[in-house]
Specification:
heterodimer; A: 325 residues; 2 domains; 16 helices; 2 strands; B: 285 residues; mainly alpha; 0% strand; flat
Chain lengths: 325, 285
């Protein structure tokens, strides 16, 4: 039976006789109630489809955002009740040299990711575009992107360890002097991890640039060639400007990804040694779940969010605009 | 004459570029070969033989997987993650498609507002979710439970799904309303019998991408679970690996390899969807 369906006439007649004889105005109202309920249901029904998604996102994600914001203004160790301290956590963070180092490491991550996966991806796409057999090459280069960051971290920990792949290879080709413990000293450890992350990130950005290059009308390239433009000129004057929408998206994604770098660093060095390779996300995690300084961790999370959201919103605008076109 | 020379030169350039690219691509996937090779060696063999030396006994990989599993519970992790990835992504696809259906096709007030509310789940860094979820899960008894993990994985994957479904549904609006009004179908029947079957392509694509996302997650497994039975596969793998890992290199590599098998299978079976995925992820078409 459908809830709120039309009043069934058969059903009325099967009701006890006594009810039928005395039809008071009140009963009459209840007789109409199902139709009114139905009308109400009709109005509400479209919103019911929203409910599961809203409950999941609102109840777990948006609630958490608001709560983290609130936590960031308190002093809280999860055991004693939180104490309001205003902006103290933010002031502490900015004055804290480990926070500053974590922040500058994150900036190095951002720069490195723009150079290696984004710049490298663009370069590869431009070369690959004119090459036969690009599908196989594309798949091979894309392959690491399917792996989890944790798996990438496991693999590259082995690459960088003392008797690992990299040092053994260096010794094998006679470059013994270059062999070193890659994850021990700053800033080598951060740079080494950026290379590991790039191994995973290069494929996707390359594929995106390839897609972008395909959307450039070939007549435009032909016309420029007839005018005598060389490859270099073609790239700087025609391809790069026409790739701008895709470039914007790849750059924004890369920046967001860099600011959220956590898994790789946590698995490879836990931000160490001596907190020398921490990123903002790692600092936040350490403050919250190792040192139980929830307020300070909240402040780091909020600072991180403020930066990420600026990029997220421009990303949103870029993608939404494209999708509604 | 000069023309001809230039053309030949260009062809030569192209072959040179191709050769270099092939070398590059081979070097690029060499770490994967090293993973496979080291996962089949004993720790002693691994430290004594060359990195690219073939293993003496390839079946050693089974021993390594077994001992890695004993050390970190990665076997349980695989089972848990299969459940999380499968049920979580299916739940997200259902919740998001029904919400997108309401937003794109039914009469509700402020549809774009509702869309933004749900989609806003994609703009925050994960660090904003960690502490409140940890606290909430402790209080309501969801901490370190499979149900709690499932609930979270569904929630985190809904926002992107709704973005894709909404775009898709807005594109097919006219057809559906016409077909439905001819039948005199209720809105639920329309959703079940007309909208969902027509949305097979985005649903499959989202299932694949969200499955991989959940499978590959490390952070939330680290924060919301602790026991072997609940901890997802990547969090278990992390216990083995890295500077602070407790596994030997062959154990680590065997674990890394095993943990990658489901997504590798998905990739090769549905390569098109994966490639499309990163394009959709960014271009939103």
């Amino acid at each position: 039976m459908r809830a709120g369906g039309l009043p069934d006439t058969n059903q009325v007649s099967t009701e006890p006789l006594s009810d039928k004889v005395l039809v008071t105005p009140l009963d009459r109202a209840s007789l109409y109630a199902p139709t009114r309920a139905k009308a109400l249901f009709r109005k509400i029904e479209p919103y019911l489809y929203l409910l599961p998604a809203l409950l999941l996102v609102g109840g777990l994600l948006l609630y958490s955002v608001a709560h983290t914001l609130a936590i960031s203004f308190t002093d809280w160790d999860l055991i004693t009740p939180p104490r309001f301290v205003g902006l103290q956590n933010y002031i502490d963070a900015i004055r804290d040299p480990t926070f500053t180092r974590s922040f500058s490491n994150t900036l190095v991550w951002t720069g490195g990711s723009l150079l290696l996966p984004v710049g490298g991806g663009l370069l590869l796409a431009v070369i690959l575009e004119r090459i036969p057999g690009q599908r196989v090459l594309k798949t091979l280069i894309y392959l690491p992107a399917i792996l989890s960051t944790t798996v990438v971290a496991a693999i590259w920990s082995y690459v960088y360890t003392n008797n690992g792949v990299l040092n053994e290879t260096l010794r094998w080709v006679g470059l013994d002097a270059l062999a070193r413990p890659w994850l021990v000293w700053a800033p080598t450890n951060t740079l080494a991890m950026i290379v590991a992350a790039s191994w995973r990130a290069l494929g996707p950005s390359m594929v995106l640039f390839l897609v972008g290059l395909q959307t450039i009308p070939p007549e435009l390239i032909e016309a420029a060639k007839i005018d005598g433009a060389g490859e270099r000129l073609l790239f700087w004057r025609i391809k790069l400007p026409l790739l701008r929408p895709i470039t914007a998206i790849v750059v924004i994604m890369s920046v967001i990804g860099s600011f959220m770098t956590f898994d790789l660093v946590w698995v490879m060095t836990q931000g160490g040694p001596g907190r020398s390779s921490e990123t903002l996300a790692v600092t936040m995690y350490r403050q919250a779940f190792i040192m139980w300084r929830m307020g300070y961790a909240g402040a780091v999370a909020v600072i991180l969010s403020a930066i990420v959201i600026v990029f997220s919103i421009s990303y949103l605008r870029a993608t939404l605009k494209r999708s509604t076109l | 004459m000069i023309e001809k020379w230039a053309i030949r030169q260009r062809a030569l350039d192209r072959y040179l570029a191709l050769a270099l690219l092939c070398l590059f691509a081979i070097a690029w996937v060499t770490p994967l070969a090293i993973v496979a090779l080291s996962s089949m060696k004993t720790p002693r063999e691994q430290s004594q033989s060359g990195i690219l030396a073939l293993p003496e006994n390839a079946a050693m990989i089974l021993d390594n997987i077994a001992s890695a599993s004993e050390l970190s519970g990665i076997g349980n992790g695989i089972l848990s993650s299969l459940i999380y990835a499968f049920v979580g992504s299916v739940t997200a696809v259902i919740a998001a498609s029904s919400a997108a259906y309401s937003i794109a096709m039914l009469k509700i007030r402020f549809p774009f507002f509702w869309f933004l509310i749900i989609y806003s789940g994609t703009i925050f860094p994960f660090q904003m979710y960690l502490m409140p979820l940890f606290g909430l899960y402790q209080t309501v008894g969801l901490y370190d439970t499979r149900f709690g993990m499932l609930l979270f994985y569904s929630a985190i994957t809904v926002p992107f799904c709704i973005f894709v479904f909404r775009n898709y549904f807005i594109g097919m609006q006219g057809e559906v309303i016409e077909a439905a009004s001819l039948d005199g179908a209720s809105s639920f029947q329309t959703y079940l019998r007309i909208v969902l079957p027509m949305a097979k392509a985005p649903a499959l694509f989202l299932f694949v991408t969200q499955f991989s996302w959940i499978w590959n997650d490390f952070l939330f497994g680290q924060v919301l679970a602790k026991s072997d039975d609940v901890r997802p596969v990547m969090t278990s793998l992390a216990m083995l690996s890295g500077t602070y890992g407790k596994g030997s290199i062959p154990q680590q590599m065997a674990g890394a390899l095993t943990a990658s098998i489901p997504t590798l299978i998905l990739f090769f079976a549905l390569q098109k969807h994966f490639m499309q995925g990163i394009i959709l992820n960014t271009a939103g078409e």
